[in-house]
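Hi R.,

Here's the chain you asked about this morning:
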Amino acid sequence: MSRSDRTGRWLPVGRIERAGQRWVPGWDRLVAVSLVRAGALAAAGGLLLSFLLVLYDVVATVGEPALFYPAVGLPLLGATLLARSVGVRTALGIGAALLAVGLAYHTATLDGVPDPLLIIASNVELLTGRRVLEIRQAGVWALAVTPTPVFVTWYLTLRREYVGAAAAGGATLGYLILTGDAGTTIA
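And here is the predicted structure, written out as tokens:
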């Protein structure tokens, strides 16, 4: 069964035109979104939400929760705006720069000049079960690392690089699981 729109084009009604794509009658001016694409966007949103809830909990416990929203919103906006105009290598470079600047800021907020080996040892301790809340300036650390996985995961999702997006978001979630901050409810 088909119906024509105002331009005389025939639109499929009530059936799948192509694999995973459905057209809705009367919505001819809207772009048809693939069901697979919509599912991938929803999955990426769920992945983002899973580790963002943990990081928000850290910030809300020891930091300023109002700063968390721009730390999430601005990378989402940036990834959305840059997804069509910037290549993957450039975007990954932006993500690495965001992480480097954030970690440098976190290091600058620590008392004294920390030893680089001590910072590496601290990260190893985090990976072996030490909670993020136990490190110095945990709220600053959470705000410092949040923009990178948000930007990279959302950018790669919008570029339809779903495996890379899952790897970026999954690595962040995995890190938080190893620290013990993300419990079985999140994971």
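One quick note: Helices lie at 35-62, 68-82, 88-109, 116-127, 138-145, 147-158, 162-179.

Cheers,
M.
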